[in-house]
Every structure is written in C-alpha cells, then in structure tokens.
Amino acid sequence: MLLSLHLVARWPPAAAVCSPRIRRRISITGPRTLASAARGRTERVSSSSSFDPEAFEAERVLLDAEARASMAAVAAAVSEEGASEEDLKAWKWKIRKRVWDLLEAENIARNPRPVHHRIPNFDGAALAADRLGELDVFEKAGCVKVNPDSPQKQVRFLTLTGGKQLLTPQPRLRTGFFSVLESQALPSGSILEACTSVGAAKHGRPIGLDEKIKVDLIVIGSVAVDPRTGARLGKGEGFAELEYGMLRYMGAIDDNTMIVTSVHDKQLVNDIPVGKLLVHDVPVDIICTPTQVIYTNTKIPKPQGIYWEKLSPEKLGQIRILQELKKRIERETGQLLPTGPSEKLPPIAARNRRRRR
Known about the structure:
The chain is an alpha/beta fold and 357 residues long. 43% of the residues lie in helices and 10% in strands. It has 14 helices and 10 strands. The chain has helices at residues 5-8, 20-28, 31-47, 53-81, 87-105, 125-133, 136-140, 153-161, 191-194, 197-203, 239-250, 313-318, 320-333, 347-356; strands at 143-146, 165-169, 178-181, 205-207, 217-220, 224-225, 232-233, 258-262, 286-288, 293-295. The strands form 2 sheets. Strands 4-3-2-1-5-8-9-10 form an 8-stranded mixed beta sheet. A two-stranded antiparallel sheet has the order 6-7. Strand 1, helix 8 (153-161) and strand 2 form a beta-alpha-beta unit. Helix 6 (125-133) runs parallel beside helix 8.
C-alpha cells in the first residue's frame, strides 16, 4: 500500500507560502526593489555557513512573481502581434490560457493560485501521483528526476519514501543545477520538508555536469498534454527542455528513458499540432491523472541535447550552468557554438545583464 503524503500531513497548505509581511512588501514595492531585495537575501544566504530557509523562500516567492508577470507580458504580446514568426508561440499560449482558465473556472485549481503561468496544482494531484507510484517503471527505478512544482510534491514524497534517489532541479535553475536527495541521508522527520523547494535546497547534495548518475525515470509537469500523441505543453519558460538537454549531455538519460507526467483529466487536450512542435519540445510516454493511466506510445522524437541555435543569448545569460556547459563544449571542440535569435529580456535578466557590464 502506497504511503501517501496527503494522508500524513495537510498537503498542500491551505494558504499561500507568502507571509502577510511579504505580501505587503510585494504590493507596495516596485520590481527593481524586489529584485534588489532578493539579491541581498541571496548574498546573505551564500555568505553564511548555515542555510537560511526563510531567505531562500522569500527570494523564491519574489522571483516567481516577477517571472510570472514577465510570462504574462510575453503571452499578451505574442497574442496581439499575429506575425507569422510568432505563430508557433501564439497557438501554445492559446491552449495554455484555455486550460488555466478552465481549471480556475471549475475550481479544480489548488494553491498556489491563480494557476496561470504555473505548472498548475489541481484537486486530485496526490491521487494522480499515487497512480504514478504504482507504475512498474517507477517501482523498478533507482533514480527519479522530478520537477519542483506543487502538483508533483506527492511524487517526490513517494520517491524518497520508496528508498530511491530523488533528482530535482533548483527552480528555474537560478541558483545552481540539480540536487540529489536520499531518504537515508536525511535528518529524522525531514522527508516532508525535503519534498519542497526550500527543503530540497536545504537537504540536497548539489551536483554538477561531471556527476556520474543514471536517471531511470523522468517525471515532468505539464499545463496541457495530448493523450493521443504524447505532445506536451509546459508553462512556457522552457526549463524542462533545458534540464532534459543537459541530462542528455551528461549521459544520464537516453531515448529509452521513460517520461511521465501527472495532470488532471481536464488538462488532456486534443489540439496540440505535432507538426508545429519544435525540435527541443519534450514528449511524454505515460500520463497519470486522478482517474486513469494512459500510455501514449508517442512517436514524437525526444530531444538529443541542447539546441544552441534555438537558445537566445538572453536565456543563456540567465542560467550559469548553461554558460558553463557552453564554454566546456567550445573548449573541447575548439569551435564556437551557435546562438539563437535575441528575445525581449524578462525584467530580472535585463537588470542582471546591465549590472554585469
């Protein structure tokens, strides 16, 4: 019988993680001050010998708010432009918005809300995770890579309580790369905490590109997924694709590594045009919902690595581990890698770039 996180603790919490004091700060402080405050907290954490969970969480909440605002602006701009070069982006945002609106309208959405511009948390997320936990591929896996989003908390819990290695990325890869967690290495009574972003950063062992690790299963969050083809849409930032590409470079995964997503049945769609997917879009092999398990038998090719010609210099400038990987490959091959077309910088990245100059 599966040990269920939602039975041993109130999960997810009924209220948002943001404290009233932080909410007041968000409501009265501009984006520039928010980023500066977050940077100051990060510096204090990194300069301290002990991990400061409150500072880490405050930074995560603030930067998450800015990132979602940036994505909302991009979505609105793409929808309004209507230019042919933006068509690939426009149809994705249309589907995402439809799903987000539906989850909110039918009160399927769960905290953090609103679910727009997030991997949406949903009623029954723990049940979907329990179905995932009963999969043969999960039971046999020794190491499972799980995204850090709210609807996959129960998956992370089942991974740790099942005695498996949990590989989870730092949110938006902003402070590092991946963290590895193992239940036997955790302090007594800390598994629930380790299932959160702050807990993973606190208790996890950070790894780099040279880590020799074999990932047996990938669990990925989704906004929408087509059960007929395995085509998937994330929230639009592209981090799942970048994480997948870096794991391919490391030799941690290959074409045979199964990819599973857990979603609500209302997130199943039938209008993701496979012909419009990009080469780096990650398909799924299995879909778990609160009511069913679907094997997609996807024929969509899995990405083979990082597609540098698709990666904008602005996105590259946001992620230190990608910069390290690019320099390493160029040094090993003696050739400069291509870069993708420029894009409008999100506020955080724009300020960081100006500060480095």
